[in-house]
Design a protein that fits this description.
It contains 12 helices and 9 strands. It has 355 residues and is α/β, with parallel strands linked by helices. The strands form 3 sheets. A 5-stranded parallel beta sheet has the order 6-5-7-8-9. It has a two-stranded antiparallel ribbon with strand order 1-2. A hairpin with a 2-residue loop joins strand 3 and strand 4. It is globular and about 115 Å long. It starts with a helix and ends in an 11-residue tail after the last helix.
Length: 355
Amino acid sequence: MNDPSHSAAAPPVTDSRGPEPGATWSRSTRVLLLSLPLLLVFLLGELTGRLLERYAGYLPRRAASYAEGNPFLRTALIPGKRFTSGPFRVDVNKLGFRGPDISVPKAPGTFRIFAVGESTTFGWKGIHSHEEAWPGVLQAKLRTAYPGRNIEVVNAGVPGYTSIEQRINFMLRISHLQPDAVLIYHGNNDLTWSWVPRIETNLVYGRGESIAPPSRLARLVDHSYVFMELRSRVDLFSRSSNVKHDAPDTTAIRVLGENLAGLVDDARRAGAKVAIGTFAHGLNEAGSPGQFSADEKALGVPAVGRWFEFLDPQGARRSFPIYNAMIRELSRAKSIPMSEPALRVPQTPEYHTDW
């Protein structure tokens, strides 16, 4: 007699746990869910950038919003442009200078001063409007001191300009606007010419192409604080990867001095008086290599090699006093008045937003 337990088929084994979570999800659903953490981090970065801009003075690199490429100057402010970012406001007049419009021809009795320089004249971090930049402050003080005079101080500073661009700027634009006086304040950007190969040739032909109008992608990036920050980091990294020097480039400083002397002559030929200033900075000129004070660390001095293409922090420390000595000698040789921000402005974070 057969045993029925051996003749009957065994029942199938079933998994009571059911299918794995997500096993039935489509591929697009899986990609979306896996992307959620990255999306949340991106949104958090965007929110953080906007809060820092509004409440902590963070100013992202959005110069393309009020500047454009120029075949003679590489870049120039866009005439009539008004740009607002959090508490920061940039008003460009119809002639392409930061600040209110000026009359052309000049109104009778007006004493017109042009302040030429770089971002330190234009007004960068911490400067919320043209009234707070030093040309605006100077105009207010002069008008208070001389209430019977019509005094204008025109802010001709542009972020990124060296004295090379400003000399061209003077010849092409400022000289035709009846300047009575020109105030020159350059330094930091000029020293980016340090150790540029074949400087006397490159100074004539330029180190790069004209800055082109922003592409559609670049304009799209300018709407994202995260992408703007990433773009800035990539740009700084490319500079920091160059071979750096820890000594001043005396050839570059000599050539820059000759250019500034030419700017003084150009201004005088246009009938303008000229004054010049040494350049204030936050570097400890006597500092040892690799050693930085608390103030220098707060001002970002250890990272200056990311800005200067061929100078390391020690090279920058040694270059500024030689550049300022060149300014003093130029003042004596040309018999022009000179102010001393380099000696009068304390080298502390209260007076600088960076080095």
